[in-house]
Amino acid sequence: MAASNGAPLVVFDFDKTIVDCDSDNWVVDSLGATRRFDDLLRHLPWNHAIDAMMGELHAEGRTAEDVAACLRAAPLSPHVAAAIESAHARGCELRVLSDANAFFIETVLAHHGLAGYFSGTDTNPAHVDGAGRLRIRPYHEFAAPAPGHGCALPSCPPNMCKGKVMERILQEEEEAAVAARRRRRAVVYLGDGRGDYCPSLKLREGDYVMPRAGYPVCDLIGGAPPAAAVREWDGFEDLARVLLGIVDDEIARAAVTTTTEQDDAAAMNAAVVGAVVVPDCRALPARQEAALLPQAVRVPN
Ligand SMILES: [Mg+2]
Ligand SMILES: [Zn+2]
């Protein structure tokens, strides 16, 4: 983790958040396989169906490069690209948390020159096998005897609980903050779908959820709101505006906190220099009083 200027960690969903489509449907529709994919979905979970679909397309002579060519044509708003670049330039760490797959996400981000802005991606693993067929695996193996992710929320698909991933990310954030002896930076999560509800619930007060207005995650959040602040975005220009507003607020807040800490240190020095005349702590605001107490070691939380 980089030295913090207070810029939050920003975690993006991918489908309908970074790209303005569902990338699975986009590829299937682009390759003329919509009806067959619907047939597969009748008896397979989504994640298995898209893997099977890639197998059928490969058997017909469609290559992984054909799939990549579809993905390069997927719609991605220049406002999203600008938001990603600007958030990164302000010091934000950026991650992707998606139920798409690694091949689709890497192809799209690389095509738009955005891959280098992200420090990591959590998604369903994918690879092109020796025969040239694209394989897509579940993030959490769930076919017996694998135990699955164990989350009971009905909005989490069997192959991926984004909430479990968010718990891991928050744990890593806490540990990094403790090691650096500072407050944990805020986490911002952007998403649109039902699967984005579980990670939203994992965020705490001081964090932010950015649900896409009018999309399924909004209904779930409206029914049982998370502890984090909810900031809706309606369209990609709005996404950029809301996200960068949060980033700027967090950076400004951190600057104020830093100044306060310097004031505290100055107050403590003054007390030491003028040790003969110890200031009456009862006359000081509680914050300064705490700074004067010898046991007031600043513990990051
Ligand atoms: Mg999505
Ligand atoms: Zn879950």
Automatic annotation (TrEMBL):
- Tell me its cofactors: Mg(2+)
Query: Which keywords does this chain's UniProt record carry?
Result: Hydrolase, Magnesium, Metal-binding
Which sites bind substrate? D24, D99
Cross-referenced InterPro entries, in alphabetical order? HAD-like_sf, HAD_hydro_PyrdxlP_Pase-like, HAD_sf, Pase_PHOSPHO-typ
Catalytic residue positions:
D13 (nucleophile), D15 (proton donor)
Which Pfam families does the entry mention? Put_Phosphatase
Annotated binding of Mg(2+), by residue: D13, D15, D192
Q: Which domain of life does the protein's organism represent?
A: Eukaryota
Q: Name one GO molecular function term.
A: metal ion binding
Concerning PANTHER family, the annotation shows: OS02G0226200 PROTEIN, PHOSPHATASE, ORPHAN 1, 2
| Protein's UniProt name | Uncharacterized protein
Species this chain originates from: Setaria italica (Foxtail millet)
